[in-house]
Amino acid sequence: MYSFKNDYSEGAHPRILNALLETNLEQGEGYGEDKYTEEAVKLLKEKIGRNDIDIHLFPGGTQTNLTAISAFLRPHEAAVAVSTGHILVHETGAIEATGHKVISIEAKDGKLTPEHIKEALEAHTDEHMVKPKLVYISNSTEIGSIYKKAELIELSRFCRENKLYLYVDGARLGSALCSEENDLELSDFGSLVDAFYIGGTKNGALLGEALVICNNSLKEDFRFFIKQKGALLAKGRLLGIQFLELFRDNLYFELAKHANSMAQLLKKGISEEGYSFLIDSPSNQIFPILPDNIIEKLQEKYLFIIWQKNNYNTSVIRLVTSWATKEEKVLEFIKDLKC
Amino acid sequence: MYSFKNDYSEGAHPRILNALLETNLEQGEGYGEDKYTEEAVKLLKEKIGRNDIDIHLFPGGTQTNLTAISAFLRPHEAAVAVSTGHILVHETGAIEATGHKVISIEAKDGKLTPEHIKEALEAHTDEHMVKPKLVYISNSTEIGSIYKKAELIELSRFCRENKLYLYVDGARLGSALCSEENDLELSDFGSLVDAFYIGGTKNGALLGEALVICNNSLKEDFRFFIKQKGALLAKGRLLGIQFLELFRDNLYFELAKHANSMAQLLKKGISEEGYSFLIDSPSNQIFPILPDNIIEKLQEKYLFIIWQKNNYNTSVIRLVTSWATKEEKVLEFIKDLKC
Amino acid sequence: MYSFKNDYSEGAHPRILNALLETNLEQGEGYGEDKYTEEAVKLLKEKIGRNDIDIHLFPGGTQTNLTAISAFLRPHEAAVAVSTGHILVHETGAIEATGHKVISIEAKDGKLTPEHIKEALEAHTDEHMVKPKLVYISNSTEIGSIYKKAELIELSRFCRENKLYLYVDGARLGSALCSEENDLELSDFGSLVDAFYIGGTKNGALLGEALVICNNSLKEDFRFFIKQKGALLAKGRLLGIQFLELFRDNLYFELAKHANSMAQLLKKGISEEGYSFLIDSPSNQIFPILPDNIIEKLQEKYLFIIWQKNNYNTSVIRLVTSWATKEEKVLEFIKDLKC
Amino acid sequence: MYSFKNDYSEGAHPRILNALLETNLEQGEGYGEDKYTEEAVKLLKEKIGRNDIDIHLFPGGTQTNLTAISAFLRPHEAAVAVSTGHILVHETGAIEATGHKVISIEAKDGKLTPEHIKEALEAHTDEHMVKPKLVYISNSTEIGSIYKKAELIELSRFCRENKLYLYVDGARLGSALCSEENDLELSDFGSLVDAFYIGGTKNGALLGEALVICNNSLKEDFRFFIKQKGALLAKGRLLGIQFLELFRDNLYFELAKHANSMAQLLKKGISEEGYSFLIDSPSNQIFPILPDNIIEKLQEKYLFIIWQKNNYNTSVIRLVTSWATKEEKVLEFIKDLKC
């Protein structure tokens, strides 16, 4: 069985493990105050092009989201997210568990626009309702779509006008930034959003996400929140060493490019067989619509998720590629599809 | 500078990294449903000698504590801990952040007795007060002491009679179990307590703690809590592989023994110089009382924590050893102390 | 200005104040352990027809909802409610503030059916999502509709089959039970639901709601939760005396009948003028659709809420009647509508 | 049986009920936006001598404390209180239930000093611990003592220097301000503390506490918190009318004076019999130390709390007086004590 189930089915890129090995027997400070974490933070600041930002490394994405959002919001304030957003669906109510409502917005392509947020603002008028305060978006989104620069600028402008924080879940930021349709750079996030995170787990690391706080008012005492939520690793250098390796010569982007190209190769092959897609995703997740009998046959050799029923005899499946996806397996999948 | 500051200043034992390397490019299930985690859980059950227990692997200790305790308690129920307990001092109010009070008990040696808990029960009489429900102990404790079997049996009996859960923070369980004064075995925890965790981070792992739930009534839906608190690692096998390596031929205990013997060597040497100790710790943390001018001199070559002022010109320091502590450095420290 | 804005615009029914006056200078136990509260609880049990239920008196509805729901649910469990449900819209995220997600279901008439809940259950499949556990309904609903006996029986059966708690927000239970279309009795709630509350504030009391817990497993330690949420009034007899007065000779139902008949009189009058309604409400809230210019004219003499825009020149307004609504004012309103 | 058990064993002062009666059938706005609440707020501002403060009326004390403290603090911040403080003992962990630790300080007389707080600050040094941010004091305290002006000035200065909020639980503020030893006025609180509340329930009201927010930075969006915690009464005028009556001609102070004079009469009588006291309380709670056999005899005619064992045959009891305590009963108690 070969897995297209998700982008965390394998270990780390070999260079990551190698970096851990090389530094393994050195002594260092705990809790992310070691020299590797400091260097990784310095390097990330350079890549983002701002020195006046705070960067904190986390073990995982849900923890990053819940720690950041609960730190940023006062008790009556709510997040706004698209109904397919990770915090609304797949984090077991982690945000609500910290006391905050997440307002759900329907959107076909998994992306929020100022119009969506305006609608949420207009529906929340007084103290009998929560107060929308933070806009949560994912890039790439949970259904593979990406934000274009013009869209992010618009969102950013709207949020600032309305005193809303703009927060980007970048679990798959690498894939978004390396998409052929992308026109955003890391530095754009530094200037357009209040906080975002750069996902490592789904792009070559063993584990690790780098939270970037751009808005000064959100920085104070942030390490207290990390510790309180249990996210301050004793051997924090484990995260620093990985991000240093991922970014020192742009390995991060190479890996994302590979994942994307494998997904696009799949898309091309499936498309040529005459099948359509739930959404025209330009990143490392694609959502072909296939006949159920073909899906069943593919399941004998491949692991993947059946996303949803499409009609009586077809379904949408999700295929995810990663830094480790092998081209030969992609080609084999396409060949198997044809038979 | 050589560090006796804590037991997480180094990386992982080389065999751990090797095990990660060997399995790195295999595909596997995410979220701890991979075969290595399954094997590790099976192996731990054997070591504990019970098959009817649930085991969940966590990235870190604070997260284990907050997830378990908040899952076990209803909103009005409180934990009881000794005033030096980790959850009372060094977890930034993580338990309170989940809504639960931690009742603090003074105890000189860092250990709770039935009398202590009785006192807490008698002080909480009705619905105007929280209801003590979970007894939190650490083994070894935050000041290096360990529980003897007779003590744990007594605590266990008292807790069962009073319908209290007994929970053991085992961040340093390896060191406790390998202490020369210890008479407890892993299987004793399986039969005497409701839940406990086996600490990996402080005993050779990169990161990882294994929570063991013995009480049936505490098992239901537990993976929901892990996910909700952000502790369900996507590449969960990272934890499984490590615990498998630590326990398949008792590496875990070898490492703890080494740490203990290094600490006891330090203790012997310091003792022979005529210095006394805050507490007669039999584990990998020792607390000598030294003259301030000697402490200052030692600080030129060694990292360690000044635990507390003792009197006008002496202080208590904490020296911690680990699986990686070098005997030559211990001997050098003792030599430096003499000069 | 005469107000049809809501059913808490006036004080209490005079008999309530009189009962408070008569008992005012007696000494009694605090915190709801006085004889009047005991008598009120006994009386309510008789009215409901079960002695094996627990009844707790609360100052207000939001507090009743948040205390009960957070007491009933474990951290990963969620409530399911219709999108117009009070806890989803008008309680400032009070349920989420206790850590629980409320799953929103769209339903035209403000009522949940087993099909709706089934849909929620099917969408929540594993530990990456919250677990639906409590079904929240209001009777009468926030838009004036009521549940029929057959509907409640169906819901109850479905909830029991699926191990879900069925909880009824009865802020306007009096109005529901006294509606001409109603075929439910208080005793039906005692046998069909797990918990419900009987609203006093909106039906003649100064303040006060009576929470009835029918399910044994939800009763334990409940007074702890009341105190923890700040809902245990020191002079708890204030609530007991009122419920005793409301129920000792069915004043409660008389008042609700009056409110309903005033609303239905309004409905008839408005209907006869040829106007239609958002929903055919049989209780004390009606939602006529009127031309905007007429609404503006009515606003010169009457207070009411503009519920929503209907089309370019008509809107839905909400008219609410109460125990205190004067028939002459209703007739005057209808007359004014005609002009 | 006559009760000296507490100061909420009776109803309201008759003038309060009368004021409710007189306004009962008027229509008014809900949720504390009625004219009586507005007038009460205006009047209280005059009494406090500041117009730039915010005043919110609450049903009860625990609710006031939990709403205010959870609104004022960020997730990692803690309150500091004396170990006998109401929030530490008798609110069922209400503050912790909102996520915040309460740091406990031992103090013989129930009062905090800058030295106490300094100690708490020095013990909380970094992000592994909670951050002390709010100082909670009660006046009068839970054991009847009161703060003198010089003490409050000192506390205020210390808190401002250390960026701590100073919060006063004034459940018995009337009794404190009317004590013969008192030298504070309402206006002093307006200038020295960040927020405080004026207790109505224990001084003549049916229910009600007036929270005063003096610090501008704590005012924003406060009504959201009141609603979210379930403390926004639908018929909010119930609170406004009472505070208006209590303060329009200083009834509040008259009632407190009466309560104090009854307690001091008790104290004098008990003292003359040769008995001593746990603390020399100048307010409406006194704590005589009596032989157990005499206590038993008194219990045949009087209700009161046995506060604590004193030695093998004496105990401390608590006697509380109120606006409604009858002088003849006080004299009778003293006479019964003599026999």
From TrEMBL, chains A, B, C, D:
Family: Belongs to the threonine aldolase family.
A Pfam family reported for this protein in Swiss-Prot or TrEMBL: Beta_elim_lyase
Gene source species: Clostridium rhizosphaerae
Matching PANTHER family: L-THREONINE ALDOLASE-RELATED, LOW SPECIFICITY L-THREONINE ALDOLASE
Keyword vocabulary terms for this entry: Pyridoxal phosphate
Record keyword Repeat present: no
Domain Aromatic amino acid beta-eliminating lyase/threonine aldolase: 22-272
Co-factor(s): pyridoxal 5'-phosphate
Keyword Cell inner membrane belongs to the record: no
Name of the protein in its database record: Low specificity L-threonine aldolase
Regions annotated as coiled coil: none
